[in-house]
Amino acid sequence: MKCTERLMCHHRGAEIQYRKVHACCLNINAKVFEKHDPVRFVEKLAKRKGKVNTGALQPHQVLMQVLDTSSSFHQAIAQAQWPALLAHVRLAGFWSNCIAVCDVSGSMSAPAAPNASLMDIAIAMSLLLAQVADGPLARHVITFHRTPQLVKLPETDDLVLLYQFFKKMEWGSSTNFHKVFDLSKSASPPPRQVFVFSDMYFASAGGNETVLRKVQKEYNKLGLELPELVFWNLASSIGHLHWPTILGSC
């Protein structure tokens, strides 16, 4: 067997094919590989001369590793894993026509996973959507604000710079979903889905008609298909809700 762990135990590191090493194994043993096989590991893999697996890693796990300044090797690996993750998602084809509303408000600083906050996960997922999207909304995100804006990401693949860009975006304590849909219909074609990555602190709706029903009428008049609105509750185990489920309360 050419199992990585078995080859390591038998001191046969020269036979390890780093391009095929499982992502979790690669991340855990990066320092070991660098110490015992520096030429092949550092030059061929960490410098992106080889393909890097992502395996079952989640977007925020890759992003957090890039932000970890304690190990330049871990950073290099994660930076190389991100394009592989994007390629895997693009291949699935589900999110090519979607856009994210990214909540980076103060309440999002609460912890959500080991070494990651709600904001970190929202940024990772929003960045992923922006980079796999195609058409007029490629590399775009909508801010979480009373007057939301359609913002284009800077032309860089450096995850540290992109993360910092997200954290500096304007934010409010809630967002105006009517304006979110106004921004969406300005694209041609409008997105198929709008994902809201948030801890669900929204302002109460006013009037006798929900925002979504008003927007639905506006889209019908223009002959446009209303995007599916997905509220992804990062602060709860409930997960996400699609707009038809919550149409009467939003």
Report the average pLDDT across residues: 81
Main pleated sheet: 6 strands, mixed
Strand order of the largest sheet: 5-4-1-6-7-8
Question: What best-fitting shape do the alpha-carbon axes yield?
Answer: elongated
Distance between the termini: 56 Å
Helical stretch count?
10
**Proportion of helical residues:** 40-55%
Quick recap:
The chain has 250 residues and is an alpha/beta fold. The protein has helices at 4-9, 23-28, 30-36, 38-46, 59-67, 72-92, 118-132, 159-167, 177-185, 211-222; strands spanning 98-102, 111-113, 116-117, 140-143, 150-152, 193-198, 228-233, 239-242.
Explain this structure to me?
- Mean pLDDT is 81; it is low at 243-250.
- The longest helix is centred in the N-terminal third of the chain and has 21 residues, at 72-92.
- Helix 5 packs across helix 7 (118-132) and helix 9 packs parallel to helix 10 (211-222).
- The strands form 2 sheets. Strands 5-4-1-6-7-8 form a 6-stranded mixed beta sheet. A two-stranded antiparallel sheet has the order 2-3.
- The protein has helices at residues 4-9, 23-28, 30-36, 38-46, 59-67, 72-92, 118-132, 159-167, 177-185, 211-222; strands at residues 98-102, 111-113, 116-117, 140-143, 150-152, 193-198, 228-233, 239-242.
- Helices cover 41% and strands 13% of the residues.
- By secondary structure, the protein is α/β, with parallel strands linked by helices.
- The chain is elongated.
- The protein has 10 helices and 8 strands.
